[in-house]
Amino acid sequence: MKLVLLTALGVGGATVIGSLIGFAFKKISHKFSDIILSFAAGVMLAAAVLGLILPSVEYGGKYGIIITVLGIFTGAFCLNLIDKLVPHLHKMMGVDNEEHNNNNLSKVLLFVLAIAIHNLPEGIAAGVGFGSGDTSGALMIAGGIALQNIPEGMVIITPMLAAGVSPKKTLFCAMITGLVEVLGTLLGFFAVSIASVILPFALAFAGGTMLYVISDEMILETHAHGSERAATYSLLIGFCVMLVTDVLLG
Questions:
Q1: How many whole angstroms separate alpha carbon 210 and alpha carbon 79?
Q2: For residue 164, is it left (φ>0), alpha (ψ between -120 and 50) or beta?
Q3: What does the pLDDT look like over 47-80, one tens digit per residue?
Q4: Mean pLDDT of the chain, nearest integer
Q5: Which end of the chain is more exposed for a tag (fewer CB within 10 A), N or C?
Q6: What contacts 240, CB < 8 A, 6 or more positions away?
Q7: First to last CA, the chain
Q8: Is 88 left (phi over 0), alpha (psi -120 to 50) or beta?
């Protein structure tokens, strides 16, 4: 339980770390951000497949593949529903418009809310990994999510400061988005620990949410600024790093 709590704090704290980096550099180039985010996408992709989806098939027994496919689509559908209720993150970050000096405070706060809502299923994914009893796989999943949270924390800073939010309140909002992920991690862990019968479906559900985030948010964002080639290779490197790590730990 101590390891789960420390990992949850680490996953959530990664957003705060990214925010502090954002304060330090203020203006991060699109290319650098895209490469880092793509690497994180590759790590998350490997974590979703190796740490969640394949174990779901294994634990599901005779009907494992059916349970896994159903869980993947259910997880993706849930995030799709969230996206209908909250504007897409790439739109809120101004990907379609290179002008970042948007002083509409309500829009910026809605952007932060969108990040917080998206962090919940990511935290659940990390918690479900621990609930499966596979500590190395769970750490791999948590590591991938934490990597993704760093550039996510970085992009929170600029629009909030531009909207007139004080540095202290900006950092507080970043901490809240990280706290949501901590709560999600604990929720996923306890849910699976209490009802192990739902483990195969829960693993696939978490994997589906991660695949959705990778495809709908991360890849889309990293291919929007002319750095597609670098982003693609960065994703492949991230995936292979986690693949090698999984083989060595296995």
A1: 9
A2: left
A3: 889 888 998 998 888 889 999 999 999 999 988 8
A4: 78
A5: C
A6: 42, 46
A7: 22
A8: beta
Q: What average pLDDT does range 193-199 have in this prediction?
A: 74
What are the tokens at 248? Answer: 């060595």
Mean pLDDT of 139-148: 77
Phi-psi category of 17—alpha, beta or left, where left has phi over 0 and alpha has psi -120 to 50? alpha
Phi and psi of 97, rounded to 5°? -145, 115
Residues whose CB falls within 8 Å of the CB of residue 171, separated by 6 or more in sequence, listed in order: 16, 19, 20, 23
Rounded to 10°, the helix 64-85/105-131 angle is 160
Model-level pTM?
0.70
Rounded to an integer, what distance in angstroms lies between the CA atom of residue 199 and that of residue 8? 19
Q: Which residue in this structure is represented by tokens 């989806």?
A: 53
DSSP states of 136-196 as a string?
HHHHHHHHHHHHHHHHHHHHHHHHHHHTT--HHHHHHHHHHHHHHHHHHHHHHHHHHHH-G
Q: What is the pLDDT of residue 102?
A: 43
Domains of the chain by residue range: 2-25+35-249
Angle between helices 105-131 and 167-194 (to 10 degrees): 30
Looking up tokens 């957003």 gives: 15
